[in-house]
Fold this sequence. Notes:
Blueprint: H1 10-17, H2 22-32, E1 35-36, H3 37-43, H4 49-61, E2 65-70, E3 76-81, H5 83-86, H6 89-111
Antiparallel strand pairs: 1-3, 2-3
Amino acid sequence: MKIKPEYCKVHDALSILVGKWKPIILLYLMLEGTMRYGELKKALVGITPKMLTNQLRELEEEGLISREVYREVPPKVEYSITEYGMTLKPILDSMHEWSMEHKKKKLKNTMD
């Protein structure tokens, strides 16, 4: 595929996924399935509650995750990856593979 830079939509796609936590949140939901807010908070060491809430809202607005609120005391909220969100799995897998190869290349270059 030949992409003309002036028509490239990579920037649009990245703007949806940009952030330290969004890809990790997506991967947790892809691999672990439905998770409660507290489970995500515990899994994402170092994330603040405000940041987690913001990242979850943005992913929900894009239709990548769904939020289910149960009317009980205390409130129970669960997050799940949507079918549409699962379409990102091959992209995230490819990015992971590229990153691993890039790290190997950098390590090799520092040893030369």
